[in-house]
Amino acid sequence: MTAGSGTGGGAGQGGTAATERRLAMLRGGQLPQAHNARTIAALASNPGCARRAVLDAAATRKHELAAHAGFPSPFGESPFTRNRDVAFERSLKDEPDKELLTLLRETLDLDIAEAGYTDLNAPGWNAAGASRDLAARHVHTRQQLTAPARQRGTMFDHPLLTFRVGGRHAYLEPDLIAFRHDGTFHVVEIKSFAVVDGQADGAKVGAAAIQSAVYVLALRDLVGDQATVAHETVLIAPRDFSFTPAAATIDVRKQIGALQRQLSRMDSIDRLLAQVPEGISFSLDRDERGVSRRHPDDLLRDLRLVEANYAPECLATCEMCYLCRDEASGTTGALGRSVREEAGGIESVARVLRVAYEKDPLPVPDDIAEAAAILRRAAALRRAALGGLG
Amino acid sequence: MTTLTSLARIEAADQGRAQLIRAVRHVHVSDRPLVVIPLQLAGEPCAPLAAMIGDDRSAPRLLVVANPLNREDRFRFAAELAGVVLGYIGRHAAGPEPAEKEAYPDAPQLVLPNAGGVTFTRLLGRSTRFRPTAGPGAVPAAVPALGCWLTYFAERAQHPASSLLLTATGALSAHWATGQSAAEDQNLAALLGWISPPPGLTSRQAALLAEDPARCPPAGPATDPAFDRDVLVELYKAIKESRAAGAGEAAVEGAATERRVLVLLERELRLVLEPTWRLVWQSVDLLRALPAGGHVAQRWTSDRKSFTGYARYLRDGGFPQAKRDAAVDAARRLARLEGEQEQLDAQMAFDDPLVMAEHLMTGRAFEGVVVQAEPHRLDQSGKRAKLRPWITLETADEVTAEPGAELRSPARPGQKAAVIETATLNGRTRVTLELQSGMGRGLAPAPGSVPEREDVLCYTTLTLEFQPPPGFPAREDTPWTHGGPPPEYVPADQAVAEPWDGSAWEDGAWEDTAWEEAVQGGEPS
Amino acid sequence: MTMEEAARQARLATEDILAVMRSASRGVVVDSPPGAGKSTLVVRAAAELAGQGHRVMVIAQTNEQVDDLTAAVAVALQPGNSEQGVRVGRLAKSDYRPPERVERLPSVTSAGDLSELAECQVILSTAHKWATVKAVGQWPWAIVDEAYQMRSDLLLRVAGLFERALFVGDPGQLDPFSVVEVDRWLGLSWDPTLSAVEVLLRHNEDVPVKQLPVSWRLPASAAPVVSAAFYPFSPFTSATSAHDRRLGFVTSPFGRSSLDRVLETAAETGWGLYELPGGHKPRTDREAVSACAALGARLLERGALATSERSAEPAPVTPGRIAIGTAHRDQAAAIRSELVRLGADGVTVDTANRLQGREFDVTIVLHPLSGRRDATAFHLEAGRLCVLASRHRHACIMVARAGIQELLDAHPSAEPVHLNVAVKFPDGWEAQQALLAHLEQHRVVAT
To answer: Which pLDDT belongs to residue A188?
Structure first.
């Protein structure tokens, strides 16, 4: 599980100092959203949305903004899921030499000799990783993982990696890293959703894959040329309806490619920021007691000054979804990407209908002439078919 | 999404009311369907926590699991559920067994709120159909029987032409377009808010309300995380603690506490389930109100035959369904599904002008006026002369059919027409067709059997004719390219290899208070 | 490389493949990039096997493919065109009559029933027809053509007919698919919606995969681009070098319209990107449709001439040697109508699906992403773009509205992942990106 809680560095790491200042201003006095593998993975989910790009680059806490603006986001995690996550992982790690090692051995073709287990959390350190000694843990991790090959163990538990996202450092904690004596590292992710008869929920596996890809990139940064970090990662999840673990390998090359593209886009956030009006802020302006002094309408107005690219897919992936959906009311895009496409790309619901039912006295402008012809035909066909029903 | 259904959605958004996209109903609705509203525990592949079930809307039966992670409780629930479901199924398989190619006069129909319900059915079927009825881990005999039936229904749900298992969201969105997106239509309350808003509310208001779990409990099988956190956790904890009470006095008190808490639990779950129960019955009513399409009865007959066959199979001691399809089974199933889809497409087009309109849009069908007719034309090329009338239609529609293609008209579905030639000039196309059947016997056409000048007709390449399924090798002849013949199916092995949930995990589950850190408003997991 | 060297490499590869067929291996798969001589290999293999005395069945996917192969095999086995010696059978469905050019070959017998072809040592037919034949293990050898485009459930139905098989196909082109979308077979090694080759190799890891190394069709300007973008694991080179092929025009233009400029760019570099102003349009974007048709007509008007290794003299690029490719049927229909209006209707216009396997001197392509707001899996599919970009011997001109790069950049990449399903390469997005990056070097803005 991840436990990213680093506040990271300040300006100068990636973006220019001016960019960092601008982003900090946009964020207002709030603490930046701490990144973990999941949030980094989510960055790629709607690259065409400027609002999201700016909010993410400024490390704002989107769910707080959405709630304050009057559109609380629909996402929440059940305590039962959380429980199961923790319990499953614990059941594996309490005695790693048993099932975990056997599984990894089978999946990664490890030798019998490869059996070392190294806990990178030195004794006395809190397993939940909430300690302020993250930097120290990271140093320890680096030392262990870059040690000469024959000295490396087989399983590294509680590794702590760092990762640079848009000028900020995040601390990342993969579940496990496995090392084979042929010189390759494999990222291992433990999830608690079930794999029934060899199949699991595609969206959940997809999310796990992209999170693993984040770890692969971070690990590659760490070990550099000294060893290979495989693009083959291991997913360990409960088998069928029991708690017995099963392992599967996932090839994350595509996810790595997508992430790298998204990260390089974030590095060039300047272009986007140039289009963001000066003086706007997403600050909640909290007082000493943590109560926000910012008027919700004010915040909403500023948020709306950065263009969004709403599609119904946002409802499953972004905390701003209800806010953007409300804004998109009356557009064909809000009804679905394919609906907008079928409507010939015309954005406004009202306009589509005026064109389809020829309600305008003036002729249709050239740029939508073909769309108009298609819509009129569809309207006529619908009318004829409905008309025949009396 | 076709252009017409997109336009309907846009119209709905404008008018604030759902628009019909089908003129007739294309699913069968039973007189007495069995409505099932399941709820399951978050995070588990299939840990039911309650179900509301019944074939009488005024008398729902509520089944509740005292501890969804407890093995005994789960199988007690499964046995109770089996009682209701198998009883309902049994009523349709009562009476004399039908002859070989015949079917029972009616078949059971399950109605669930949404697609999540089908997944639940499939997984519950999977988790119960292999359970042994004797020896270690034995369960009541009704449980694996339930498992086989649930698996059967879940598989039938994948058949495009089957109505044995319906989802309210699926069936409604197949006939109405709302003014929101297809993703939002998966919320049954929101969907119904567009089709039939509650009095005093606009569709949009109703849909917004439907998204607020505090005002409108989710239709399941997932529960609202806040409900889990604020209500369920405490109640389950209390039940667990009351059971853990020692012996003697403490045990008696524990039992009493457990009963009290169970009453509370039932009350809470009823509050969650009842609204959805009403919504599903409302959906059934709305569907029933639509006139049935011409081929619905025929498809229901296929369903009845399938049901009859499966009932017979189980009665004769048939094995539970395999976990995954073997190579031949998979290929055969795909062929069946594809054939069914093709036939369904044609039937829907012939039954429903709104469906045919979609084909007119894409060019799969065209509508034209007869400009020339030779009803008495004879084909003398063979040994005997045959009556082969020619008609020429003129249309402004796109004609994609090529010479030689076989066409049919919904006005004359039994009459084969072959394209002789097409010619396009200035946006209008003339199509010459040769009629090859449906004129009666003899060399003169029966009156009215040949279209006349100025008749307006629609022709399409869709055909109602049944395509026989292709042949596949037997399982034992699976070729080397596909891994050779699969090993013999031995269901007993499967049961033994099925370890139950680790009790070690179950004991530790409630001690950890990690759930108190559950994130509200964080990224979806 | 020189053509002699190319021929040598192709020969070596063929010999290698034939050697594997003589070994104990149950099968062999041959990856054949566009224009690499797949049909030549099939004919050669059939002749070899027949020469060794084996009975051979040849499976192709469409009637046209079967007819072409039948004629080629008959000629290869009977160069003297006599009736004696090896007989070739063309098994056809009862309602299909093979074309005259096949039926008139003296060594060919055409029939709807296998019993009438008993004397034929080589029998060819479509997979669907073979699937109706009830005879187990009758043929020691089968040759399966276009095996990557064949769905594995079809292979299941015919595999019982033969003992060993040579599978030949192009891994970069369109995958088979089903209109039925069901998750239940995802991850199964015998998922019926996978291609025949994929399933075969999942169950027979010891079947060697060979490759034809050289494209005889794609010019030196195209092979490296197509190979890098669409064939990451089976790279290939062009058989010809830059000076072997040339495209020129009889006439010079009067004034230099942007149409002419892109034609000249294409003639010079082998590629052209004719860029229309950005905008979101319906599929049958009138401006794009007109541009495609206008380019075809202008090619003919200018009197394009192709110089190649095929003939000593430059050959006129006739309408039959030009193709316009699209993603959708309605786009093809619209372009066809426009060509009729311009009087240039001998030009082939078709979708990628129907252009598979065909070859032209010059192709014009309506880019699948042109005018689109969002990219769907259909439009991003690498195989589609690969087919469209690999039909030409001389030049390929793509017509597209500006904005495709932005579209690609905005494409969300969170996709579901299914366990035990092999990741498909090339990634559609990456392939699109690679080709676009190349095309932008040959951009001409429409005016």
So the answer is: 93
pLDDT recorded at residue A291 = 86
Q: What is the pLDDT of residues A203-260, one digit of tens each?
A: 999 999 999 999 999 999 888 766 689 999 999 999 988 888 999 999 999 999 988 8
Parallel/antiparallel/unpaired status of strands A228-229 and C443-445: unpaired
Cβ of C419 within 8 Å of Cβ of A200? The answer is yes
- Supply φ then ψ for residue A99, to 5 degrees: -65, -40
Describe the strand order of the beta sheet including C315-316 as a list of residue ranges. Answer: C246-249, C304-307, C315-316
Decide if A258 and C286 are in contact by the 8 Å CB cutoff.
no
Quick one: which of C400, C284, C289, C274 has its CA closest to C338? C289
Partner-chain contact A344 C183, CB within 8 Å: no
Residue B503: band (very low, low, confident or very high) from pLDDT cuts 50, 70, 90: very low
Residue window 184-213, chain B: list those with CB within 8 Å of chain A. 184, 211
The edge-to-edge listing of strands for the beta sheet with C56-60 is C108-111, C88-91, C122-126, C56-60, C139-144, C162-169, C27-31, C209-211
- State how far the Cα of B272 lies from the Cα of B113, in Å rounded to an integer: 13
DSSP state of B401: P
Mean of pLDDT over chain B: 89
The domains found in chain B, sorted by start residue, are 3-322 (no CATH), 365-460 (2.40.30)
* Closest C-alpha to A245, from A351, A357, A87: A87
Sign for the pseudo-dihedral over CA of B98, B101, B105, B110 = positive
Residue C308 forms contact with B (CB below 8 Å): no
Using a CB-CB cut-off of 8 Å, the residues of chain C touching B338 are 178-180
The residue whose two tokens read 């429903």 is B352
Asked if omega into B113 is within 30° of 0 (cis), the reply is: no
All residues of chain C having their beta carbon less than 8 Å from the beta carbon of residue B472 are: 156-157
> Which pLDDT value is given to residue A94?
83
Mean pLDDT of chain C: 93
The DSSP line for B460-509 is: ES---SPPPPPP---GGG--GGGTSSPPPP-HHHHHHT-PPPPHHHHHHT
Task: Map tokens 């399982």 to a residue.
Answer: B475
ipTM, two decimals = 0.93
**Confidence band of C285 (pLDDT split at 50, 70, 90):** very high
pLDDT attached to residue B495: 46
Nearest CA to C415 among B120, A320, A316?
A: A316
Query: Residues C329, B400: contact at Cβ < 8 Å?
Result: yes
Helix (H) or strand (E) holding B230: none
C357 phi/psi in degrees, rounded to 5: 85, -5
Average pLDDT over residues C272-296: 95
C374 touches chain B (CB under 8 A): no
pLDDT digits (tens, 9 = 90+) for C189-211: 999 999 999 999 999 999 999 99
pLDDT by residue (tens digit) across A176-190? 887 776 778 899 999
Closest CA–CA distance from residue B247 to any residue of chain C (Å): 49
- What is the SS3 assignment for C445? strand
- Chain segment C326-369, per-residue pLDDT in tens: 999 999 999 998 999 999 989 999 999 999 989 999 999 999 99
Chains contacting chain A through 3 or more C-beta pairs under 8 A: B, C
What is the chain B residue with the closest CA to C329?
A: B400
Q: What is the pTM of this model?
A: 0.92
Where in chain A are the domains?
A: 17-74+264-309, 79-259, 337-389
Inter-chain touch A345–C280, beta carbons under 8 Å: yes
**Separation between Cα atoms, residue B182 and residue B8, nearest integer Å:** 13
| Vertex B127: Cα angle to C183 and B143 (nearest 5) | 130
Q: Identify the chains in contact with C, defined as 3+ C-beta pairs within 8 A.
A: A, B
The phi, psi pair for A279, rounded to 5°, reads 85, -10
Nearest CA in chain A to B228: A78
Contact (CB<8Å) B10/A352: yes
